[in-house]
Amino acid sequence: MEHTQTKRQPLISVIMPAWQAERYIGQAIESVLDQSCGQPFELLVIDDCSRDHTAEVVKKYLSDSRVRYLRQTRNLGVAAARNRGIREARGTYVAFLDADDWWDRDKLKRQMACIRKTGAVLCFTARELVRPDGTSTGRQIPVPGRVTYRQLLKTNVIPCGSVLLRTDVAREYGFVHDEYHEDYILWLKILKKYGAARGINIPALKCRLSAGGKSRNKWKSAQMQYGSYRCLGIGRVRSFYYMVFYTLNGFRKYL
After folding, report:
1. Cα separation of 18 and 138, whole Å?
2. Beta bridge partners of 95
3. What is the mean pLDDT of residues 236-254?
4. Rg (CA), the chain
5. pTM for this model (two decimals)
6. What is the DSSP letter of 105?
7. Is 136 helix (H, G, I), strand (E, B) or coil?
8. What is the mean pLDDT of the chain?
9. Do residues 163 and 143 lie in contact, with contact meaning Cβ atoms separated by under 8 Å?
10. In sequence order, what DSSP letters do the residues of 9-68 get, joined into one string?
11. Res. 2: pLDDT tops 60
């Protein structure tokens, strides 16, 4: 695999939390290293104390100077892993990708063009749902071209694995409350201060469905959504009001 970014300061730091990820992480890493953005980037793999062969798989890619492998001293969860990646990032922007998902080749290129055109601090894309074996379900989840704080309160249209975000903004808040939707909480904080985020309605993120995902249990996901509102200081009445929109959007999205 050819690359010419060995000594250049990265513009983008891709943060990939990994736990028990030996089966899929190779595809995720390769989708990052194959990006066509034409800008220097780095990939930080944050191993959250995997007990399988995740480390051995990642070591195959460490000959590429863009790849950095960081192992947590104890298992702290995905929010803490992403936060470590944010702290260690050398790029002006950070992007997030789970170890079982992957990107289209032009994903970062499209997003950098969008950010330069609009001045947004956060850019996201649509996603395609794929089965555990990587085959397409034929289902794509579209996104709006622009989303405001008030619009985002009604439902989360920003997939974490599609986000490109200014590093200084990510460091300002970080991921908190892993027991809720920690990414949704972060997006809402950012949009409330910095204005609308920009979306690209192209399924550049391939999102692998898994039985163990936090959002697969819809009742639990609804409880986490309500908890996210409450930890943001939103009152009970307003939280229930936004839950109505969340529920309706959930039916529209998945049924």
Report:
1. 26
2. 14, 164
3. 85
4. 17
5. 0.92
6. T
7. strand
8. 93
9. no
10. PPSEEEEEEESS-TTTHHHHHHHHHT----S-EEEEEEE---SSSHHHHHHTTTTSTTEE
11. no
pLDDT digits (tens, 9 = 90+) for 108-167: 999 999 999 999 999 999 999 999 999 999 999 999 999 999 999 999 999 999 999 999
What amino acid occupies position 147? V
Amino acid at 137: T
For 3, left (φ over 0), alpha (ψ -120 to 50), or beta? beta
Give the whole-angstrom CA distance, residue 170 versus residue 7.
25
- The total of other beta-carbon atoms located within 10 Å of residue 7's CB is 7
Tokens in use for 227? 């908890």
Token pair belonging to 137: 């379900």
Q: What confidence category does residue 217 fall into, taking pLDDT thresholds of 50, 70 and 90? A: confident
CB contact set of 171 (below 8 Å; sequence gap of 6+): 86, 87
Measured CA to CA in angstroms, residue 63 lies from 2, 31, 67, 164 at distances of 11, 16, 8, 26
Contact 108, 85 (CB under 8 A): no
30-69 burial, b if ≥16 CB within 10 A, otherwise e?
A: ebbeebebebbbbbbbbbbebeeebbebbeebeeeebbbb
Phi-psi domain of 152 (left: phi exceeds 0; alpha: psi -120 through 50; beta: other): alpha
Which pLDDT tens digit goes with each residue over 96-107? 999 999 999 999
Percent of the chain clearing pLDDT 90 (strictly above): 86
Q: Which residues partner with 70 through β-bridges?
A: 46
C-alpha distances (whole Å) from 151 to each of 60, 172, 187, 251 are 43, 22, 12, 17
Beta carbons of 108 and 35 less than 8 angstroms apart: yes
